[in-house]
């Protein structure tokens, strides 16, 4: 009995230490996002090559981005946004942003073979998620601020929203440039090709599901015809 206890205790201690180290690394990678958005050139390089970021933190930022979007539609003052709250589907709104985001990451990764990019899908996804941090930091508090402003003060609200979007786009540009080790000109062309690639992927997916639905409808009608003739 004493031997079993002596064996299980170190195992539990190792597991607890491992869990503690994971949470410490997670908290550190969350805090590191503040450095990334203020020092993007060094930040994105260290994010991937020095392992300063984590997928868990990337998932968190993506979730907060989607949550901010949903809360913005639900809680922003009616003076600055018009959304039919009674017909609002939060899952539909979240998916309308999540799916294009993932498609862009996939298209960017797929085009790396044509442009000799060095980034893996994991690196691209992580950089894109970290680039969303300004959107959350600026737009989330502006939901509350919007309910304190008059319509005449709306320019103040619009400026902050524009800054958050421009900041995110700039971070995406720098992040992909650092990950793939491109120059500014090649990165700009690469972004255009990525958008085109994403549109092609969406088109192929729509065609696939259209053909699939037609095939299912054909077999259902065939089954009904056979049942009708037999019975």
Describe this structure in words.
The relative contact order is 0.10. By secondary structure, this protein is mainly alpha-helical. It starts with a helix and ends with a helix. Helix 1 runs antiparallel to helix 2 and helix 5 packs antiparallel against helix 7. Helices cover 83% and strands 0% of the residues. The chain has 8 helices and no strands. The chain has one domain.
List keywords for this structure.
231 residues, mainly alpha, 8 helices, 0% strand, disordered N terminus
- The amount of beta strand, in percent, is under 5%
How many strand segments?
A: 0
Give the end-to-end Cα distance, rounded to a whole number of Å.
71 Å
How many helices? The count is: 8
What is the count of distinct domains? 1
- Run of helices and strands: HHHHHHHH
Which spans have pLDDT < 50 for at least 5 consecutive residues? Answer: 1-7
Largest sheet geometry: none
Which radius of gyration do the C-alpha atoms yield? 24 Å
Please bin the fraction of helical residues. over 70%
Shape, principal axes of CA atoms: globular
How confident overall, as mean pLDDT? 86
User: Structural class from helices and strands?
Assistant: mainly alpha
């Amino acid at each position: 009995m004493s031997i079993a206890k002596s064996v299980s205790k170190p195992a539990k201690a190792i597991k607890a230490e491992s869990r503690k180290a994971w949470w410490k690394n997670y908290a550190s990678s969350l805090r590191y996002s503040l450095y990334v958005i203020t020092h993007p050139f060094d930040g994105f390089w260290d994010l991937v090559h020095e392992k300063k970021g984590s997928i868990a933190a990337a998932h968190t930022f993506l979730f907060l981005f989607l949550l901010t979007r949903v809360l913005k539609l639900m809680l922003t003052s009616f003076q600055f946004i018009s959304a039919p709250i009674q017909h609002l589907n939060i899952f539909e709104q979240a998916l309308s942003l999540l799916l294009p985001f993932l498609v862009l990451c996939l298209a960017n990764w797929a085009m790396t073979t044509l442009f000799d990019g060095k980034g893996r899908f994991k690196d691209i996804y992580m950089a894109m998620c970290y680039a969303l941090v300004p959107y959350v930091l600026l737009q989330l508090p502006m939901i509350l601020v919007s309910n304190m402003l008059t319509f005449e003060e709306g320019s103040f609200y619009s400026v902050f929203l524009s800054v958050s979007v421009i900041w995110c786009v700039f971070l995406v540009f720098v992040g992909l440039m650092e990950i793939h080790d491109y120059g500014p000109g090649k990165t700009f062309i690469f972004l255009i090709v990525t958008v085109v690639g994403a549109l092609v992927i969406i088109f192929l997916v729509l065609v696939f599901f259209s053909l699939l639905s037609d095939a299912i409808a054909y077999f259902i009608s065939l089954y009904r015809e056979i049942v009708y003739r037999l019975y």
